[in-house]
Design a protein that fits this description.
single chain; mainly alpha; Growth Hormone, Chain: A; 406 residues
Length: 406
Amino acid sequence: MTGVQVAPSRPTAAALRPVTAVVAVMVSAAIPPFAVGAVAVQVGRAVNFSAADLGIGVAAYYLVSALLSPTGGALVVRFGPVACMRVATAAATLGIVAIATAPSGTVIVAALAVLGVPNAVVQPCANQVLVTIPARAQGLSFGLVQSAIPLSTLIAGALLALFGSGETWRVAMWVVVGITVLAQLVIGWARTTAAVHDDATAAPADLPALGGRPLLALLVVAAFAGSAAATTLPAFLASTGDDAGLAPGGIALAQVVGSTACAVTRIAVSHRAGSHPGPANLLTVAVLVLAGGAGFVLLSLSTVGGLVFGLGALLAYTCGWGWNGLFNLAITKARPGRVAATTGLTQGGIFLGGAAGPFLFSRLLEVGGYRLAWSTTAGIAVIAAASLTVAKQRWSRAVGLAEGAA
């Protein structure tokens, strides 16, 4: 086969099984900060755990993930994705058990930091599995795998609805422990992960890096800013609604509906964009992020009423956090011969943004309340959209120059 074949993005049964395993494992590694954020108000009433503690814990989780991602990638290369997924999921189980039995907020913060370790391993596992998926299924597979994050927030919203009062937050954590155990069973069902191959997905390592380092820098900045804005959403949505005087059931409904819409968006845009040129994909991501910024503005006005809160949550989840799958697809087109190295850098930007966003939000919360914090988050989303727009323009110019030279 002389090149990459473009085919309909339709998964086969062989491709679906490893993708299902990756989604289950990613949920196990990604859900802890979202679950804690959803019941943070109840946790704070039971133990000494403040909004500042939540911000520090979530920031530590993402910071550890960012710092250890290169090590996680090396472990996946050495031991394979199946073994690493099993160990990472087991570590997630132990970390969540520590949260469920925590006697103080300090223990919860420490457990969230440690839970960044399995998350750092899971992300390289996902990338390793996706490159073995047949080319015709990769577009949809990217979207399905990225749906694991909003699925985690959806579960967190359901936990808030079911266990939104008193000491029942510990029961919610034990439910999350059960989810991680279930993921181990899914890994066993999908042990064919390492056996799925398609030579058509390979790209020569000497393909030109369009746009050079400036394009890559813009992509990393966009990843950082977009993630910094988005990751504040599941961590502080529940406490924002509580501050606005909304009932736990209404807050949970907003989170569940928003998470569902986010998952649908990630899958749909990745599926439809599989055959689109990379610069067009970046422009679509920029539009999504900018629309998400409007949702953050509405959340800053959430004290106006539940309708404004619900609309803001829906828009922020759907657009402000629905861009990840399409962003990763665009990166593979920008650097087809350097996918692993490039996604390692941009994923580092995403994790660092995940650490900086909640931490900054918690600090702003202490200074000026939720209105200032969410307004600043909207500004960060604008920075991400601007970086993506400039990157799109630079990429388009590079393509034009390459075609002219040919």
